[in-house]
Amino acid sequence: MRRGEYCLIAPDVVLGRDVQVFHFVNLYGCEIGDGTRIGSYVEIQRGARVGRNCKVSSHSFVCEGVEIGDEVFVGHGVNFINDKYPRAANADGTLQTDSDWTPQRTTVGRGASIGTGATILGGVSVGAGATVGAGAVVTRDVPAGATVAGNPARIIRNDERGTMKD
pLDDT tens-digit profile of 115-133? Predict the structure, then answer.
């Protein structure tokens, strides 16, 4: 495992074998699979899981509730969201705490690719072998093997050529 200088890797992080972590990374309470590379300026929060042999490129944010399968490419500046109705405070004006909301589960299937600057909303699934175009905003499930692009993301190609087989 390579730990870059100036990284915050909390003691509760589960790192697989041969994980590479580069500079200015913040990892806490998450699990990173064998052979995965985490680029600079990435944050991966507690309860998130990144599979084996993935690449998470710089400036990406993987929040609680996100599960990324094996062999997934996450481009630069990709953001995952886990709350459809985010609020800083409750109706009475008190700051919200963890007990005031439940993170939505988001999954990314094996061999999927997510392009630079994409945003993946909470509660969606990106299927195995799917491709999310750069800058896309994914608001609903992406079928396995499909290619989506745009805001909101729409299917521009839907076939099994991109799907990885077990």
Answer: 999 999 999 999 999 999 9
Question: 58: number of CA atoms within 13 Å, CB side?
Answer: 5
The three-state secondary structure class of 40 is: coil
1-86+96-166 in CATH: which number?
2.160.10.10
Contact 50, 62 (CB under 8 A): yes
Each residue of 125-156: b (16+ CB within 10 Å) or e?
Answer: bbbbbbbbbebbbbeeebbbbbbbbeeebeee
Please state the φ and ψ torsions of residue 37, each to the nearest 5 degrees.
-115, 130
Residue 123's CB is within 10 A of a number of other CB atoms, namely 18
Whole-prediction pTM: 0.90
Could you report the per-residue pLDDT of 35-72, keeping only the tens digit for each?
A: 999 999 999 999 999 999 999 999 999 999 999 999 99
User: Under 8 Å CB-to-CB from 40, ≥6 apart: which residues?
Assistant: 4, 22, 23, 24, 25, 58, 59
**Residue linked to tokens 């630069």:** 76
